[in-house]
Every structure is written in structure tokens, then in C-alpha cells.
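Re-run with default settings, no changes from the original entry. Doing this only to confirm the output is reproducible before filing.
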Amino acid sequence: MKLNNIKHIYFDLDHTLWDFDRNSALTFETIFKEEKLDISLPQFLETYVPINNNYWKLYRDNKISKEDLRTGRLNDCFKCMSLDVAPQIINNLSNNYIKYLPTYNHLLEDTLEILDYLKGHYQLHIITNGFEEVQHTKLTNSGISDFFQTVTTSEEAGVKKPDMNIFLKALKKSMALPENSVMVGDNYEADILGAHSVGMKTIFFDYYGKKEPVQSAGIQKLNELKIYL
């Protein structure tokens, strides 16, 4: 089942290597305390997570701006919870979320082990739709930045995954050919279909264990990359 002729591995960051869910929850806990908001964190997250996922899809599809995403998801969440939160507090929460998020640096299970396993055999890279100002900090603070030869963000590329041009930019930066490259990511549309559009091989990380049929090699644990690489 090994993938042949692979020289370059491109990883998504959030939900693939960096434990976004855990780090995000810790961030909200901190900023709610800072703003003296008495909100049940589990109840908030139950409402917020699907709203946030929808906002990120709109952002990927270029239907909303970065600022719309940052404040709109909070506005909608508080409205759904019937909470009256002042616009200034929402603005503070939005800014402080970006400020504090990269200070929490939990990685997903097996991240360090698999990166250490791969680094001697392949060139490793990051392709991410996350905000430029936080993604590099996440990599540095979590101690994994030295594993990667290149990092390509959507803001740097001017387009977001699944747009083929972000993948083409990443390939050009790393002087790689699509046929020698594989993309590993948790978002089927953004990571897998996007990479397919430029002829890259793919490995879908079924982070949430949905086990849905996909047109890609697949894993449910990062260590399972050893099956293919």
C-alpha cells in the first residue's frame, strides 16, 4: 500500500497536526474570564463549533471577509444562545482569541512521532488556510516549525484551499512536482479535492471518525501514515 515516488509531503495544520479543538476551547476559557463573562463553555462550544465551521466554508468560498468570519461567528453564536453581549465585548473577544490561540500548543496524538519518522525520508511542508499572523506562531510555539521546509498560507497565496493556485504556489516554493507530492489533511473538499486538482496524491485524515467513502487513501490516526509512507 506504499505510495511510490513520493519526495514531498504537504500537511494541513489545524485538525491535522495542531489540536485546534483543544487549543480553541482553552482560549475561549481564558478570554471569557478576562471579559468576566459567565458562560458555560461546553454549551458555548456546542453552539459555536457548527457555526464556526459554516463561517469557514463561506470564507473558503470567498463569500465573506476575514473580519466577517472573526466577528460574525461570535455574533451568531451569542444570538443562538439568547445572550446579549455588547459589540465592544465581541470585538475584544475576537481580537483576544487571535492573540491567545497560538499560546496554547497541544498537538494531536502521534504528531511528533510521525514527523520524526518522516523527516529523514521526505521533505515536509505546510499548506494552510489559517490566518498568516497566527499559523507561523503556532508552528514555532508548538515546537514543530523545524520539521518543515516551507509554509504556504492562503493569505500569502491570495487564494484559499481548495483553489488550485495555493497548491501550485506551494509546489513552486518547494520546487516539487505534483507526481512526487502527497497532501495530508482533514478537510475533504479543501485538502483532498484541492490537491487532486493539480495532480497530487492525497491521504485523507478522518479526524472525526466519520468513515465516509472518499476517493483517497485514508487514515484515522497519524501513525497510520506509516502504511503509505
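The domain at 20-103 is CATH 1.10.150.240 (DNA polymerase; domain 1). The mean pLDDT is 96.
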